[in-house]
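Fold sample X.
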Amino acid sequence: MKFGIVGTGMIAHFHAQAIEAMEGSVLHSCYNRNPEKAADFSERYGIKNHTSLEEFLADPELEIITIGTPSGSHLEPALAAMEAGKHVICEKPLEVNLDKINSMIEASEKNNVTLAAILNRRFNESVVVLKDAVDKGRFGTLTLVEASIKWYRDQAYYDSASWRGTWVLDGGGALMNQSIHIIDQLIHTVGPVKRVTASMGLLTHENIEVEDTAVALLEFENGAKGVVQGSTSCWSSTGHPAEVNICGSDGSAFLADEHFKVWDFKNPAPEDAYVHANLMATEGAQGLGANDPNAINFTGHQRNFEEVVNSIKEGRKPSVDCLEARKAVAVITAIYESAKNDGKWVTVN
């Protein structure tokens, strides 16, 4: 299938590399209203470039577009693409508030096109194994779970672009931008969140509107109790891995990025030997993207794109569709509402 990319910033290069690595897919074109940026990106990848969104979408050869613009500017190109009959894969978050996301979902249904998200960490082998263990009931009664994102961004990161650290275009800070993939992993593996209470603050950065540190307590619909802690103010020379930790009456698993620190169950299973041989963390492992947003690879994006392409060809919904993408934004939105209202309990919608 032929892909086009909206936006030509840092994340667009991960999209381009992932598409180029896919068998049977072609990076076809790009759009950026800035002529120099559009030309530079197209020259690097040998593709068509457009500075008009209408012209970009009018190309009959274009089948799927990926969106890599700032978070709060996903709605316009997504709606335009779906109205033009194109399938859409959108970077995280799908949008920065639920009203915008709901509009995108309605447009997808109205135009009978796929709207999917980049939830690339779901495709890590370790996350697949972890979810399988939860689904099989290996943890027994789920008790305590946690998403922990102790990352670092210096002031220069926020100063590098006027949209960073704004509610309108970033949608939030350490939670909506940096922590959303890990919060998604927690929801994806443990299940829906019923309500939250939270606190947040701006502790170490200047001239931004949003939080650089937040903590929340979560009550899940299955009865589990959870904690989310996310920050861009946790300095480390190597970067702390992002963690998803799950405990239950019959087992515990602590996942640090792509490898487990703990994999321990009351009732052993055949797959445990494979996990211990291949998926355990080594001491001193560095965090993926913890200190540097460029320090990730495109493998997860490639698997994400391949899942969406396969779902379109097979006439089914992708596992990372718009309804799945909405879940993490709904939880984070509830956390923000709670924190702005002195920690009152807020129901997740």
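Fold sample Y, listed below.
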Amino acid sequence: MINAGAPRAVRDNGGMSTTALTENTPLRIGPHTVQPPVVLAPMAGITNAPFRTLCREFSGGKGLFVSEMITTRALVERNEKTMQLIHFDESETPRSIQLYGVDPATVGKAVRMIAEEDLADHIDLNFGCPVPKVTRKGGGSALPYKRPLLRAILREAVSGAGDLPVTMKMRKGIDDDHMTYLDAGRIAVEEGVTSIALHGRTAAQHYGGTADWDAIARLKEHVPEIPVLGNGDIWSASDALRMVASTGCDGVVVGRGCLGRPWLFADLVAAFEGRTEDIARPSLREVADVMVRHATLLGEWIGDESRGVIDFRKHVAWYLKGFAVGSEMRKRLAITSSLAELRSGLDELDLDQPWPTGADGPRGRTSGNNRVVLPDGWLKDPYDCGAGVGEDAELDTSGG
């Protein structure tokens, strides 16, 4: 079940040929081969079935595309919204679900439900979410600080999963004074986790500052038994190649870099296959066509065109980043309620605009240096799990 294959990149002075990357063993997640070793990061409200479809189409079906975060209690209780979120298109393989939970028993029930009812082919556990409504309950990036609780959750998950591979995604720690990733990595290996993804930031950083790729390298050296994937500040395909070359990680997890750019996965596949010249530079006309398709897919998935377009609104600014589109038109496009209205507004733009210089850079949330909201007394003792996690820790619906 555990295979530590994947690229064994040799660190050098900042570069590695793509030929060297493609000659290495592909990434293995349990029985699943992920080649090239590229994973879509779970993002709440973003990585639903329509967005995964777009990313997968651009990648030619290569890579691994994970669902948005699912709360284990909501899954066990068969919450209607949650059951929709775990629906996969017939073309999705392997089907990958990310779970969030703080109670070992509930996590175990959720994992067994997935395995017994054939709801997915791969389970990822979230220990990286930094948002206050999650960390204040001891979840997400706060949880690995409690080493025995982390071990108990991983043990229940791996035990309940049967033949399904269980992976985990985490951050470096709560803040610079409370690092957890090396201890968490060792616990994961001991409990049978198949691979680990590390976001090179602490919870306190949220999405600010610069991701610490050196931490990814240290984790890889610390747990050579299983694949380690790197996450953080991958805005282009060249960034992904640099991360693998400089850290020795076995693959990359891409989140904010693909917001408004699902074709980034085409770039990533091309880069890892040595076709560095095949980098997408779509015109605004091509971008507009993808925007309409994205909104259309959302409407079909939700079952209501208007609701689909409304859900799409949050993507508008990401898609149009860098293009010469006036503020009034941006506002207008961000309040559309029908496909016809969206298409009509886009057609009024100068659609012959080329891909703008600098549009490959950072996008999405960039806030950082935040105080981490934790349960009372959480940091007193990393081995005391008797207090802190409240009974309401998993009452939020999925997508947190």
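Sample Y note: The mean pLDDT is 89.
Also: The chain is about 35% helix and 10% strand.
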